Amino acid sequence: MKFENKAIIITGAAGGIGKEIAHKLAAEGAQLTLVDVNEVALKAVVEELGLTADRVLTVKTDVSKEADVKNYVDQTVEKFGRIDGFVNNAGVEGPAKAIEDITEADFDFVYGINVKGAFYGIKYVLPIMKKQQAGSIVNTASVAGLIGSPQMMLYNSSKHALMGINKVAALEAAPFNVRVNTVNPGVINTQMMRQIESKVAPGAADAAQSAYAEAVPMKRYGEPQEVANLVVFLLSDEASYISSSSYTVDGGLYNV
């Protein structure tokens, strides 16, 4: 029970990757704050986990709003007394458009969640961890934060921004024994990828999926639990000397 009596926040907890992280942490004894904009889906996750009320907190949140983020952090401290881990996982893929077709509303939507939401989370979690002199933050970026993809400028650039936030946060946190890392999933078998496939190839989503899988050296999509395995390791004390690092979970796709 590596996480017994440890409090972990997961944003985007109702999504494919977030839900798998919650399952693994629950099995390891963690106390969980599950954050998502979809309250119905959050309740379904709690039912799946089967946790008693003393071990779980759900908070409906729009992470693009600073007050909402502060609220889930405050509620976590009030319920559990501390924050040992933070999985900064909420994100959206945004529209698939050429750069010249992107609107201000498109930009604000994607950056509001993927950049501002991630920043707000770190802003409010980090002081608590610094005071504790302990903690681990794992940011869910993407291989899109390492490369470019046609029609996906907003998603790509927002994940590049998160990689930059991660580097600075890790340096500021290190003197306080707080670690900050990113995981960078490739094509993972989640609802987000179903949406991306449909957007980049309208009417030919199956062909897009096949093409994406073929581009991966392992010739398949990854599964959410394969990302969750790495996230849980980085949260654990077994990763005690790992910080300011980025790890791809992509079947060899990003090969430099």
Automatic annotation (TrEMBL):
SUPFAM superfamilies: NAD(P)-binding Rossmann-fold domains. Keywords: Oxidoreductase. Pfam families: adh_short_C2. One of its GO terms (biological process) is bile acid metabolic process. PROSITE patterns: ADH_SHORT. InterPro entries: NAD(P)-bd_dom_sf, Sc_DH/Rdtase_CS, SDR_fam. GO terms for molecular function: oxidoreductase activity. It comes from the Bacteria. The keyword Acyltransferase does not apply. Belongs to the short-chain dehydrogenases/reductases (SDR) family. NCBIfam families: PRK07231.1. This is Oxidoreductase. The lineage of its organism: Bacteria, Bacillati, Bacillota, Bacilli, Bacillales.
